[in-house]
Design a protein that fits this description.
The chain has helices at 11-15, 67-82, 114-120, 142-166, 200-212, 230-243, 255-263, 276-285, 296-309; strands spanning 25-34, 37-45, 53-60, 92-96, 103-107, 178-181, 185-188. Residues 164-168 and 193-226 have low confidence and may be disordered. The N and C termini lie far apart (43 Å). It has a 5-stranded antiparallel beta sheet, with helices on one face. The longest helix is centred in the middle third of the chain and has 25 residues, at 142-166. The chain is built from 9 helices and 7 strands. Bound molecules: adenine (ADE). The site of adenine has 11 residues, from β1.
């Protein structure tokens, strides 16, 4: 079959050494937990193609972490090496792999994760993100929200081109795995896992993390379904998180019940203040039949168009 239109990194990017001396990396403080361990803020000297010190985010796995976590971070690294930079996907800057612990250096993204960013935009004292019927206050315009939405779809669209050829799956697409940078640009992070999606182990873990994130997926209960379309479903939940300014999906519902309800056709109702057109897009992402869900490139086009209508 023809090779999909994938933007592989130029050869020099794939073959050049990303390796950095451990002594040139300074961990300053832990800023979060990633899929495979923790993320620190720090600085690195002598990065490939950069002189001087650069502020970086350092992804690492604790020394006593399970081997599978180390393998996951390693495969995320290998995947990143092959990607040509995309504005909406976190960019690799270097790595330390010659000795343990493995360090993966990526661009430091100023405003942290999108979920926190959305919730902060409500103001300091708002804690009503658990009630979708209360219209949240926010300092963000609906145009800005649409821009976040299409940028995430665009990044996913880019990653899903690789997915076709490399079985790249995003473990857990959710607002907390999207970072917000300067000029309010969204960047997808924690997307690595260039492993065989048939691997049962992944399936189990995927189900577990998604349950934790309340990103319940009907296919998570259906062993036969392809993994690929889980992401379109998750994207619908991200749209819900964006349009409710950091709301919690399936508010006041218990994990196990949600799964059963979804299988019976239940979907999150439209919060009153959410735009009809946007809600329709979420519902399209939550179609039972994976084949009928919109593709990420369709979603990008549709949401870009909506952004422009919000002028
Ligand atoms: N949290 C997790 N990854 C990050 C990054 N690359 N930049 C800033 N905060 C982060």
């Amino acid at each position: 079959s023809p090779v999909p239109n994938v933007e592989y990194a130029p050869l020099d990017m794939r073959t050049r050494s990303w390796e950095v001396e451990r002594n040139d990396v300074k961990v300053e403080k832990i800023i979060g937990k990633g899929a495979f361990g923790q993320v620190a803020k720090g600085t690195a000297k002598n990065l490939p193609l950069r002189s001087g010190a650069t502020i970086v985010a350092i992804k690492m796995v604790k020394a006593n972490a399970p081997e599978s976590d180390k393998r996951d971070l390693k495969s995320e690294l290998e995947l990143m090496k092959t990607l040509k930079p995309h504005p909406n996907v976190i960019k690799l800057l270097g790595c330390v792999t010659e000795s343990e612990p493995l360090l993966v250096l990526v661009e430091y993204v100023l405003y942290g994760d999108l979920l926190g960013y959305l919730r902060k935009s409500r103001g300091l004292n708002d804690t009503y993100y658990k009630d979708p019927d209360i219209k949240p206050k926010t300092s963000l315009t609906s145009r800005q929200l649409m821009k976040f939405a299409w940028q995430i779809a665009d990044g996913m669209s880019y990653l899903s081109l690789r997915k076709a050829s490399l079985s790249v799956v995003h473990r857990d697409l959710a607002a907390r795995n999207v970072l917000v940078g300067e000029t309010e640009i969204c960047k997808i992070t924690d997307f690595g896992m260039a492993r065989d999606v048939q691997d049962e182990n992944i399936y189990e873990r995927k189900t577990k993390t998604t349950l934790q994130g309340r990103q319940l997926l009907t296919e998570a209960l259906d062993q036969d379904t392809k993994h690929v379309s889980l992401l379109e479903w998750s994207y619908g939940v991200v749209l819900y998180e964006i349009s409710t300014i950091g709301g919690s999906p399936y508010p006041r519902m218990e994990g196990r019940k949600i799964a059963t309800l979804l299988q019976q056709g239940y979907r999150m109702p439209k919060p009153e203040h959410v735009d009809n057109e946007l809600y329709q897009i979420m519902m399209n992402c939550w179609q039972s039949e994976p084949e009928t869900r919109p593709s990420f490139s369709d979603l990008t086009q549709q949401l870009k168009h909506m952004e422009n209508q919000h002028k």
